[in-house]
Hints:
Elements (H helix, E strand, L loop, with lengths): L2 H24 L9 H30 L5 H25 L3 H24 L8 H16 L1 H12 L5 H33 L6 H17 L12 H27 L1 H7 L2 H24 L2 H8 L2 H26 L7 H27 L7 H21 L6
Amino acid sequence: MNLKSHIKIAIGYFFIVALLGVFMRMFQVVDISFNYKNILHAHSHIALLGWVYTGLTTLIYKLFLSEKQLEKKYKILFWSTQISIIGMLLTFPFTGYALISIIFSTLFLLNSYGFIWLFLKHTNQVQKQLNSYKIIRASLWFMALSSVGPWVLGVIMNTLGSTSPWYRNAIYFYLHFQYNGWFLVAISGIIFSLFEKYSLSISKKQFTLFYRLFISGVFLTFFLSVLWMKPNILFYTVSGLGGIFQLVAFGVLGKIALQNSKLLKASLSRFEGNLLKMGAVLFIVKLLFQLLGALPNIAEIISINIDFVIGYLHWVFLGVVSISLFMFLKHFKLMKLSRTSYSIYLIAFFLTEGLLFYKGIVVWQGISLADNYYLLLFLASAVFLVAIAGLLFLPKLNK
């Protein structure tokens, strides 16, 4: 089974996500008679479920299941998942949340449960003793937990309505356990798989401390998502504690990497090392954002400033998660990546993030926005298309 072709499909989704993103930026530049919210639904679903889910599950399959003679079962599950993703891509832009798009979304959830079952059932006892297995298993349970959000969303819409605070909280529940649970915990598990591949020295005490702090932090930082309701001060304290837990956990991970820096340097190419370092730097900034977001005054500013929220989500998705995926997929020879494509991607990332946070500050301070802001954001977003098109359509450029 050619897993590289599966990753090419994932990158294809990423290209479509960038295309939809550019299209959404056009709404503020020219008049377009199309439903913006429907495009947003398609953009977000294909980003999370097309690019990241396909990339992560392919990596997990390669690392844990590729030697288990599961090709037939995995192929059926993979293509059933693709049908659900393509179904969402073809329905959300035109119908939004309607019967057909909900059917495809439900099919996707059932397929994701199938992947969890495949992983839990077919990993052997030796694998189950690995640190990487324990973390990946936790990430998959977080993926399952995140699905509670979509399941209850329909109930909330039919009973309390989309204006209910519970509607917004259900969406935030899903996003939190997707981003901070499934995505980032899975990435941590793949990092530990790398450590195991190259026999890095990790004590049981170090791993236990990392695991307990990081996983506990995922649960506790969920309360950041409800601070927009201005709850009791206890919620701010608990979410801040979760942020501290994760910052300390990252410190433990960093100490492990430093203790084994010579071995890591010898095991990774210079380019792969740079990708890993960039992902780590962006993740540190993400953790600092979390801590700041637990402060009451800042939480209040963020809750009424959509640009800060979008900037943060893009920082995690396009920065931490996507760049980490680039590194892993390149290292495990599932995709090719050139310094040129990566450099263009970084330019697009920092330009768009700078513009999003700039607008957030402008709105917060009540000052005038630059006249050509939306045109600049449209052009910066278009740079993503160039970078991802290079990955997809110019194989000779990449190596």
